[in-house]
């Protein structure tokens, strides 16, 4: 829940698509969800329904729109293209195995922060649009508890930017799950004061 001196943001990764299942690069391609797997997110749906959100945001891509319709039906969400995954250009729909012998792909794997897939998106503009979205949320006084349904790369960018002790692997969020981050302002800058994975799974009594 939100607090008087901070902004609570739930970042939820969309549900699974066929390309996700096949481990294909999926950025701006508009793949639908596998609807039979949405039920796996029922605990998250239950926990989110107990929250009162000041605002709900989603990536404008179909897999996120379908996820948020399942999680919080009948609640309006603002679709924002800044919440899209990175655009993988000519590599959309391809697997690592299909690309691993391509010299351009090998260069991108080793220098992903300074290069881009052919006809795709460079990391730096991706980073700027994600930060622009987050900064807009944090500066609004009326937003204390916010829900965001987006993509794995977007969530990783936020987590690695505000939780420096995490490795890149530690910030990988499974499909249909997420992370709650509490942001507080300190010395004019916003910092993440606490975070936790969602949904919260209660331990069974032994």
UniProtKB/TrEMBL annotation:
Xref: Gene3D superfamilies: Phosphoglycerate mutase-like
Annotated CDD domains: HP_PGM_like
SMART domains named among the record's database cross-references: PGAM
Keyword Hydrolase belongs to the record: yes
Pfam families registered for this protein in UniProt: His_Phos_1 (PF00300)
Record-linked InterPro entries: His_Pase_superF_clade-1, His_PPase_superfam, Phosphoglycerate_Mutase
UniProt keyword annotation of Zinc-finger present: no
Keywords for this protein: Hydrolase
Source superkingdom: Bacteria
PANTHER family, per database record: FRUCTOSE-2,6-BISPHOSPHATASE TIGAR
Protein name, per record: Alpha-ribazole phosphatase
Species this protein is from: Thalassobacillus devorans
């Amino acid at each position: 829940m939100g607090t008087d001196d901070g902004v609570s943001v739930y970042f939820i990764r969309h549900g699974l698509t066929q390309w996700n299942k096949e481990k294909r690069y999926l950025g701006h391609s508009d793949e639908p969800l596998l609807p039979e797997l949405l039920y796996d997110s029922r605990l998250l749906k239950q926990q989110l329904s107990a929250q009162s959100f000041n605002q709900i945001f989603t990536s404008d891509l179909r897999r996120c729109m379908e996820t948020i319709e399942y999680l919080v039906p009948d609640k309006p969400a603002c679709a924002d293209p800044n919440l899209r995954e990175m655009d993988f250009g000519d590599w959309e729909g391809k697997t690592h195995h299909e690309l691993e012998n391509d010299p351009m792909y090998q260069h991108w794997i080793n220098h992903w922060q300074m290069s881009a897939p052919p006809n795709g998106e460079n990391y730096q503009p991706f980073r700027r649009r994600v930060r622009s979205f987050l900064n807009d949320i944090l500066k609004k006084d009326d937003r204390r508890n916010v829900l965001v349904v987006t993509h794995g790369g977007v969530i990783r960018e936020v987590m690695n930017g505000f939780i420096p002790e995490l490795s890149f692997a530690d910030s990988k969020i499974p499909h249909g799950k997420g992370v709650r981050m509490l942001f507080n302002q300190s010395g004019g800058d916003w910092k993440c004061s606490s975070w936790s994975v969602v949904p919260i799974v209660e331990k069974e009594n032994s």
